[in-house]
Amino acid sequence: MAETGHRSIGIRVLGAFRRWPGRLSGPGLAGALVLAAVSLGPALTPRPALYQGLVAGICAAIGYGLGVLLAWLLRTVGVPWSRARSRWFRRCLLVATVLVVPLALWWNATWQDDLLALFGEPPAESSHPFVVLVLALVVAVLLLQVGRGLRQVARWVARLLGKAVGRWVPVPLARLVAVALVAWLALVVLDGTLVRGGLAALNDVYAQVDDGTADGVTQPSDPLRSGSPGSMAAWDELGLQGRSFVAGGRPLEQRQQVADLTDRELVDPIRVYAGLRAGDSLDEVAQVVVAELDRTHAWDRSVLAVVTATGTGWIDPSMSDSLELLWGGDTAIASMQYSYLPSWVSFVGDRSTPPAAGKALFEAVYARWSQLPADDRPLLYVAGISLGSYGSQGAFSSVQDVTARTDGALWLGTPGFTDLWGQLTEGRDAGSREVSPVVDGGTTVRFANRPADGTPGDRGLWELGTNWDRPRIVYEQHASDGVVWWSPHLILNEPDRLTEPRGSDVLPSTRWVPLVTFWQTTIDLFVAGTAPAGHGHNYHLEYADGWAAVAPPDGWTQEDTATLREVVGLVASEA
Fold first, then answer.
1. What does 123-171 look like in DSSP terms, one character per residue?
2. Which residue intervals define the domain Alpha/beta-hydrolase catalytic in the entry (predicted)?
3. Over the chain, what is the mean pLDDT?
4. Cα–Cα separations (whole angstroms), residue 230 to 165, 211, 301, 462
5. Which of the four, 55, 256, 303, 519, has the lowest number of CB atoms within 10 Å?
């Protein structure tokens, strides 16, 4: 008897599963097919199958919604649509699906190999089309069910409103109010519960990760490093990335190789850092950094760089190494931690803390630096990569502010929502491209794509001539870096970078598609850092050219920069 009951339930479930596709909108399925297929087309960075399946599923769900909306509009204006036409439409759609899906998956594998060739990499062993297809279907179905659930709630609310105020409010208006109310409640739940609750949970998780120490990292004994015995910044309070930073540095033979170029006497570089636990506020943490600068006598060095870290407090080793190699160690680098969260989390959910931290750190250092005699203080530079670039620029209101209070700036992989970067890009000289803007002829600010190799189609730092005022501001950005080019404006607006001559590492077949390009670039945020050096969000080799332009020692030449780049490249390949 029980066996018969279980079999009956199974039959009903199977029957419901078989009937479920018939309940889906034909125009909706057509929209899903179109947008999913388009989403498999060229993007900025090759992506793993899981990411590609995710973006295809999201786009399929959006396409379904747009197809349903279009069908509703056609019915509203009186376009006839019989059952016979619906059956023929579904048959044609089935044939189209059988043809389009394999072609789209093949297209996806082809453009990824073409892009890898532009990057100088061998083709991938497989694009894993089955994984992409299955994941896209799962994601699309889940999002579709969520949407249907919200629609049912909206209908229920509309019925309640109709019963309550139906005598005074027209039915269409009641439905519109119900949809708006449900949408508002969904956003409130999403932001107040899922997003904020998720951020709090992630913060707890990454706070525990922050207690760890990377393999091979040991507490420094050099008093010129924070975290050493006697330091005001305790080793166990520096955080995972802070400990790696203060314990890092280049081998003596590499430092000597670059120092010989200018006959500089090698000295041990200063690295100061304060972890998030060093104070109850960003200002207090910044004051610990200043105290460390005082303790190490950093003000006696030739160069002081204020570097804003990324989300977890990470500083790209190539950034600090390049500057120390350039000046033979006659440097001090100051930074601090402002979050436990990785940059991608802060990128999405917390954009206020990075510029607040960048401002707190720079203002604290600048206040102390300003007290020193003008002819007896180090050159003051600011720098940052990715979210650190965004945070560093938060300390300044304009280019004039940067040049008035610093001796130069080096910013790499700047996120597209950065105010100062946006002002400069939007106000670029007529005829210059979005991927490599020219600002006032390059007299103060210069943008570069890949200055290390001078690839045709990319702009180098010196292509605008040697008439370059100091202080100098350098932006390094790759045409294939999704971190730089991500923006909500991509949803409905085509970017200039895809209508102008594009960078050398962007496929000619890359096109803007409403909604689709936004989600593709969103996925690029997560995979951009996996690109080889000189592409995507990998700037290992750009630091040599950038620092050599912003902060060159006396007598430094382009040939010297080539040697520095070579040494830094060896470091990057060993890392």
1. PPS---HHHHHHHHHHHHHHHHHHHHHHHHHHHHHHHHHHHHHTTTS-H
2. 270-564
3. 85
4. 74, 21, 21, 45
5. 256
In the predicted structure, residue 513 carries a pLDDT above the cut 50:
yes
CA dist 234 and 489 (Å) reads 44
Cβ burial 45-81 (10 Å sphere, 16+ → b, else e): bbbbbebbbbbbbbbbbbbbbbbbeebeeeeeeeeee
Nearest to 293 by CA among 381, 382, 371, 225: 225
Task: For residue 328, give Cα distances in angstroms to 226, 338, 349, 570, 571.
Answer: 20, 29, 40, 17, 16
Structure tokens at 568: 């830094």
Please state whether the peptide bond connecting residue 122 to the residue before it is cis, i.e. omega within 30 degrees of 0. Answer: no
Give the angle subtended at the CA of 117 by the CAs of 112 and 120, to the nearest 5°: 130
Which tokens belong to 443? 């007299």
Q: How far from 567 is each of 92, 329, 551, CA to CA, in Å?
A: 61, 15, 18
Tokens of 65: 């919604």
Sorting pLDDT into bands at 50, 70 and 90, what band is 458?
low
CA distances from 301 to 255, 324, 327, 515 (A): 17, 11, 10, 51
Question: What's the Cα-to-Cα distance from 321 to each of 228, 248, 252, 286, 408, rounded to whole Å?
Answer: 19, 9, 12, 23, 18
- Asked if residue 132 lies in contact with residue 102, where contact means CB atoms within 8 angstroms, the answer is no
This prediction has a pTM of 0.85
Alpha carbons within 13 A on the beta-carbon side of 477: 26
Find out whether 93 and 29 touch, Cβ atoms under 8 Å: yes
